[in-house]
């Protein structure tokens, strides 16, 4: 028998109308599954973008002890400037640190109004030739007398960011896996109800020579339609959430390097829809195949 797309689509829509409530439930579960997966992809993409941006401009800041005199500071500055990994070393006094802090938070003077001179330490800002050399230079600074708590550089931020977001991303992916299984089972049960309601018709079709593929196709279309509806809505919500987050971060987090180009929204849109379609096809195919074996 030839492939008749119009016939299969009409049969699938008739099955959805017959089990409308179950179809809505299956589509909703698919929506939640794809939404959680999409949020996980957004978090992962933005974290990678932030980490990449931070790595492009790696400096090490050494907060100097208060008992270090200017002669010792000059000597240390010259010594560190001779490191082959170091491009430049600049000294920031306590007064300069306070001025810089006030300029940074000029829009919120209440942040620094109670901060006086001597609160912010003097520091050496060490610019590196390559970001990958941060750990090696930090080790050399510790051998020169710097305490680990006195050193601040993006590699530490990157490691903390990776550690904090890694658990969250895996949690989102774990939740996605659970919802994925639930979606497949719900779509499978929805298809099973459709099969049960039309079991006599299917038996007649088999008696007159209909192939397993001809019997199976309308139900696969049914599961595909259910999942595509849920997945498409979820993918659009994910793209919308990404736009909202980028706009919000640019005003609320001006010092956080969140870029709109960190997420390929078109790729994520199609990828989520394809994953959702696969959920529907797998769930319906498994259900119909079990029935045909009976």
Give the secondary structure arrangement, pairings included:
Layout: H1 5-18, H2 20-56, E1 59-63, H3 70-81, E2 86-92, H4 94-104, E3 123-128, H5 134-143, E4 151-152, H6 154-197, H7 199-207, H8 212-252, H9 265-293
Antiparallel strand pairs: 1-3, 1-4, 2-3
Helix pairs in contact: 1-8, 2-6, 2-8, 2-9, 6-8, 6-9, 8-9
Account of the protein in words:
The protein has about 290 residues and is α+β, with helices and mostly antiparallel strands. The chain has a 4-stranded antiparallel sheet with strand order 2-3-1-4. The two termini are about 25 Å apart. It is built from 9 helices and 4 strands. It folds into 2 domains: about 5-55 and about 160-294, no CATH class; about 60-150, Alpha-Beta Plaits (2-Layer Sandwich), CATH 3.30.70.3040.
Please give the number of β-strands. 4
* Uncertain parts: none
The helicity comes to over 70%
N-to-C series of helices and strands: HHEHEHEHEHHHH
The overall number of domains is 2
- Order of strands, widest sheet: 2-3-1-4
Helix/sheet category: alpha+beta
What's this model, at a glance?
By secondary structure, this protein is an alpha+beta fold. The protein has nine helices and four strands.
Key descriptive features of the protein:
294 residues, alpha+beta, Alpha-Beta Plaits, 2 domains, four-stranded antiparallel β-sheet, 7% strand
């Amino acid at each position: 028998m030839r492939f008749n797309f119009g016939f299969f689509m009409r049969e699938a829509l008739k099955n959805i109308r017959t089990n409308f409530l179950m179809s809505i439930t299956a589509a909703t579960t698919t929506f939640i599954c794809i939404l959680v997966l999409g949020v996980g992809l957004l978090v992962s993409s933005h974290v990678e973008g932030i980490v990449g941006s931070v790595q492009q401009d790696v400096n090490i800041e050494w907060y100097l002890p208060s008992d270090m005199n200017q002669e010792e500071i000059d000597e240390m500055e010259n010594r560190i400037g001779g490191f082959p990994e170091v491009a430049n070393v600049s000294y920031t006094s306590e007064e300069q640190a306070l001025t810089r802090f006030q300029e940074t938070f000029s829009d919120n003077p209440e942040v620094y109004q109670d901060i006086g001179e001597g609160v912010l330490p003097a520091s050496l800002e060490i610019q590196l030739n390559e970001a990958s050399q941060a750990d090696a230079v930090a080790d050399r600074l510790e051998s020169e007398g710097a305490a680990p708590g006195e050193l601040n550089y993006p590699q530490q931020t990157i490691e903390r960011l990776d550690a904090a977001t890694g658990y969250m991303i895996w949690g989102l992916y774990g939740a996605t896996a659970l919802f994925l299984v639930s979606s497949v089972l719900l779509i499978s049960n929805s298809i099973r109800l459709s099969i049960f309601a039309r079991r006599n018709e299917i038996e007649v079709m088999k008696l007159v020579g209909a192939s397993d593929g001809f019997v199976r196709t309308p139900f696969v279309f049914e599961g595909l339609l259910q999942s595509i509806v849920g997945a498409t809505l979820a993918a659009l919500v994910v793209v919308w959430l990404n736009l909202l987050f980028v706009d919000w971060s640019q005003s609320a987090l001006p010092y956080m390097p969140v870029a709109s180009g960190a997420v390929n929204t078109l790729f994520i849109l199609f990828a989520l829809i394809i994953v959702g379609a696969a959920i529907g096809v797998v769930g319906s195919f498994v259900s119909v195949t079990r029935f045909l074996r009976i």
